[in-house]
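Help: why these numbers?

___
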Amino acid sequence: MADTHVLEPSQAEDEFALEQRLYEESLRTLDEGQVLTGLIVAKTNDELLVDIGGKSEGIVTSRELSPGMSVADLKVGDTLEVLVHRIDGDGDGTLYLSEKRARALKTWTKVLEAHEQNEVVTATVTQVVKGGVLVDLGMRGFVPASQIRRHPVGNLDELVGKQLRLKVIDLDHKRKRVVLSQRVVLEEELNQKKQELLATLQAGQIREGTIVRLADFGAFVDLGGIDGLIHNSELSWSRIKHPSEVVNIGDKVQVEVMKFDPEAKKVSLSLKHSLEDPWKNVPDQLVEGTVVPATLIKVTQNYLLVEILPGVTGMVPKSEFDGRTPPATGETVQVRLLSINVPSRRITASVTKASSNEGGNPEVAEFLASQEAQESSIGDSLEAKSAEPSDATGAPEPPDASTSDS
């Protein structure tokens, strides 16, 4: 039979003291504020028992879980990252752990790194507060209303539940508070697009843009970082009084780059390129010397400007209209086309000659003259016939007998 080793009372006390000392030393290696990964070994309705190192188990109450987490959702065997929140040194050495504090501390470290490296972080808007919104980074962050977008935000409540791309703009290390901005991110992206656009923009290019603003003299188009101007004269072939006659804010348009000043970052654009040039139809529809209706669009002492076809204008010189009683703007007048120069897009017309063929096309004049001559010849013939004597039947009388005898 094997010998059984029996401890003396004093020896047993020494081993118990050693175990007690080793246990206390294991507790002392855990510092408040330390973050560890533990294993859930037991749970109640509102507490978790978490093993964080074999000999050490701590308690996580429901209040120390992050928003959205609950004791009921966790099960025995799950791992949990916790922070040693408090060690009860006056009692039995109970460890009080916190999952939400561990998450906040870890997040704070990430926030510091993102700030140092100027990185973008993503966070969800959780609440609207005075002056801005709160976001969930793993810890709470504040975004001022002026830092949400490049332009003022109307209803902040619409942002709740949405994600923002943010950069840290201010930190309070003592209180671990962070202020963030999405506007900084948007402006940096816009500047990058602007630089890329400046490097590739050239006159003659066709670009897609968005109408962002209307003025009396034209429409402004966002080309993707740079705004260009479409002057009223380049919005339509026809004369317009206001750009709203052609486009509206928010419209997507295909525009042609007319001029580009990279130093001043000014871009002149045209929308007319996408419309059919009305001058292509002029040779088929207008003939010199003819009289056509036209709409008076401008009156000066020296000339009248008339629209003969949509987008096709002509000039009536001072000598070709009565300056004492000129027609009113918008009035329809008859004009004779004196000259048509398609390559230079110039038409000269006359109001005074509209009722005659003076100054008209020679071929037209020759045709009208021949028509008048023919009408005159027919009229003379009819008069001659009507002057001849006739009997009651209308037949001409026979010649006199005495005349025929001689």
Observations:
- The first helix runs from residue 9 to 28.
